[in-house]
Amino acid sequence: MSTEQTERPAETSPAGSWNDRPAPRTPAEWLTRAAEVGAILAADAVERDRAGQTPYTEVQLLKDSGLVTLLGPVEYGGGGQTWETAYRVTREVSKADGSIGQLLGYHYLWSWAVRFLGTPQQIAAVEELATTNRYFFGGAVNPRDDDLVITEDGDTLVFNGRKTFSTGSKVSDLTVLEGVLEGTDQHIFAIVPSAQDGIVFADDWDNIGQRLTESGSVRITNVRISWDDAAGYVNREFRPLVYNTLNLPAIQLVFTNLYLGIAQGALETAAAYTRSTTRPWPYGGDNKESAVDEWYILEAYGDLQSKLWSVEALTDQVGTQLSQILHGDREAVTARQRGEIAVRVAAAKQRAIDVGLEVTSRIFEVTGARATASSVGLDRFWRNLRTHSLHDPVAYKRREVGRYTLLNEIPEPTWYT
User: Fold this and answer.
1) Where residue 193 sits, what CATH number does that domain have?
2) Where in the sequence is the signal peptide annotated (predicted)?
């Protein structure tokens, strides 16, 4: 695999010299680092959301701060942390900017693709390359599109096709591809450099939310890899494990933490506005001098915060359980174990969506009419959460939990479960 950096405009991290500071070592220190990154992103989040520019600077911040290497092996300069911490870091960044939180969460998922599928030799090679260079991952694996077509040319595999969504696209250094070998039912994953003539990003992401995720379409033309780089293949044969299918629960929990982070950021931002700007209602018969003493405002914040705390508790519990599986023996994972954690992820995701949409909508009731000004930017939280929460129908997550509860059935692995 080429180690050449993706060509892009030179950027400088707005945080100054991160290299002059010691790297985080503990989960708490990584969360502190994520909060520092979040504070930088929050400072101009409204303006950046409006501008909708390709987030080169923001991704450089993720690199310079070291967050991109959190899961990387220590021997290559990575953080050596677990998925439990990666989920919380994703959530922390999402509080400030849902788009950049999504990019980071997807990066963690795609950087782990080689562990889901690869051989020990492939894992070592990719992790050394990506961690040492602080490479950023994107992915072109939208399963609702036609599969990329893979043809053989001697010892080389050639990918061709188009994907509607490719989150991370122009800001990525490495892209995960997936396709089907022509004339077979063999799915093949590969990790390739993003900067090459055969990968063309269309710049057609124009949605109401998650505007900075670079999630537009991509055209793949004659992208070539060696058979040796086909993830998990040995002598052109793949030996499947249940562990291979854990990428779906893993990314669904990335979604959950993204939604929870957006909702937490919305409530924190609204509370700051209420404290500083919201005026009390003078016609209620129980007039207060300050909005923070209004009973209906206190009641609403109490209700919303309680709901968020409950979702956070469930999400953290599931994150701990899934992390233990992801960092455990790959060959020991059973179908039942995989199915039960998928159900728990489904439960957490649906609660994060429901509560998140309630929070991002009701914050206007407790901030007041003036808070709808574009300059305040409270609408971005709802737009971001609503946009991404339509990724796959939440009703199917409820059904999965229902079938488990009533029939003791675990969900079959699919591209969305």
Assistant:
1) 2.40.110.10
2) none
Instruction: Give backbone dihedrals phi and psi of 352, rounded to 5 degrees, phi first.
Output: -65, -40
Give the bridge partners for 219, in sequence order: 162, 200
* 237 DSSP β-pair partners: 234
Which distant-in-sequence residues (6+ apart) come within 8 Å of 160 by Cβ?
148, 149, 150, 151, 220, 221, 222, 223
- The secondary structure element, H or E, covering residue 175 is strand 174-181
Number of domains in the chain: 3
Convert the pLDDT of each residue in 62-86 to its tens digit: 999 999 999 999 999 999 999 999 9
Q: What is the pLDDT of residue 19?
A: 84
Contact 175, 139 (CB under 8 A): yes
- Nearest-CA neighbor of 2 among 223, 238, 232? 223
Query: Do 103 and 113 have their domain in common?
Result: yes
Supply 254's token pair: 């990335």
Q: Which tokens is 10 given?
A: 């030179």
Lowest-pLDDT range of 1-10, 211-220, 231-240, 323-332: 1-10
Q: Are residues 258 and 289 in the same domain?
A: yes
157 is in which domain, residue-wise?
A: 139-238
User: Do residues 26 and 130 both lie within one domain?
Assistant: yes
Same structural domain, 294 and 205: no
CA distance 168 to 383: 19
Give the Å distances, CA to CA, from 95 to 164, 243, 257, 258, 284: 27, 31, 10, 8, 34
Quick one: which H or E segment has residue 402?
Answer: helix 394-407
Give me the mean pLDDT over the 26-51 stretch.
98
Alpha helices in 112-246 (DSSP H): 113-117, 120-133
Q: Which of 282, 290, 349 is nearest to 314 (CA)?
A: 349
Listed residues 197, 220, 238: the one ending a domain: 238
Q: What does the alpha-carbon distance between residue 52 and residue 209 come to, in Å, rounded to a whole number?
A: 10
Q: Model pTM greater than 0.85? A: yes
Residue 303 in tokens: 């209700």
- For residues 97 and 42, the answer to whether their CB atoms sit within 8 Å is yes
What average pLDDT does this structure show over 329-339? 98
CA distances, 157 to each of 111, 143, 163, 254, 370 (Å): 21, 20, 18, 31, 58
Tell me, yes or no, whether 414 lies in a domain.
Answer: no
